[in-house]
Design brief:
With 237 residues, this protein is of the alpha/beta class. It is built from eleven helices and eight strands.
């Protein structure tokens, strides 16, 4: 998923993002009213302030790559708003912006974090309440507590921003692949510049039998639902 390939596919992805060639009613609605929605939402101003505060934690030379842009922040919020999950698992959101994007949907939701700095956790807890933000030093510990919190009929909602080593990759792969056989919402970032994230995304796609994937080759969204035919959409997000 290199830069040249993204340039080659830019026109087709932009064309598809307008709904052209999408025959699934669910996919058409999801692309038009969730991924591509342009109307403002109630939380955008608060998220913009949260992101600005997070940028202050990052050395100036790394700010462009370390913190996601507002367009991605808004899209993550819209996806979470569409599903309104009660419990969210967020992995590798080092400065907390991705976690804030999905947590801001509801004050009643609880987010389980792994790979988030202590300063960012404090920022999240101040913004949303300490009782709704749970942070763990190990990915495996976060997964255990997240599994325990899920209700029996609850659909997992998982956002993975970054993976740093093979151990974390193996831990997440073992936890996530069983969900690919059931029902979940998975969002994976850094597909273009993190080889472990790219591998995990390919693992999920290879294990899938139903549902739909949406990607701009940087972020991948996998809607796992047995009611949906297995389809893949390359978009301009």
């Amino acid at each position: 998923m290199g830069r040249i390939h993204r340039y080659r596919t830019a026109w087709s992805r932009h064309h598809r993002s307008g709904g052209f060639g999408i025959h699934s009613p669910f996919a058409f609605g999801f692309v038009q009213r969730v991924l591509g929605e342009r109307c403002p939402y109630y939380a955008y101003a608060d998220l913009k302030r949260f992101r600005a505060h997070a940028l202050e934690m990052v050395p100036r030379r790394r700010r462009r790559s370390a913190v996601v842009g507002m367009s991605t922040v808004k899209m993550l919020f819209r996806i979470a708003n569409f599903y309104n999950p009660r419990h969210l698992l967020v992995v590798g959101s080092r400065y907390g912006v991705e976690a804030a994007s999905v947590k801001a949907v509801s004050g009643k939701s609880e987010v389980y974090l792994a790979g988030t700095s202590s300063e960012a956790v404090a920022h999240l807890q101040a913004a949303f309440s300490a009782q709704s933000v749970h942070s763990f030093s190990e990915f495996s510990e976060a997964l255990t507590h997240y599994f325990a919190a899920l209700a029996e009929d609850e659909q997992p909602f998982v956002l993975i921003h970054e993976i740093d080593d093979e151990i974390d990759y193996s831990t997440l792969k073992s936890a996530i692949l069983p969900w690919v056989e059931k029902q979940a919402v998975l969002i994976l970032c850094h597909l273009h510049d993190n080889p472990l994230m790219h591998r995990l995304w390919k693992d999920c796609i290879a294990a899938g039998h139903y549902g739909q994937t949406y990607t701009n080759e940087k972020i991948g969204i996998f809607i796992i639902n047995p009611k949906l035919q297995y389809e893949h959409f390359s978009l301009w997000l």
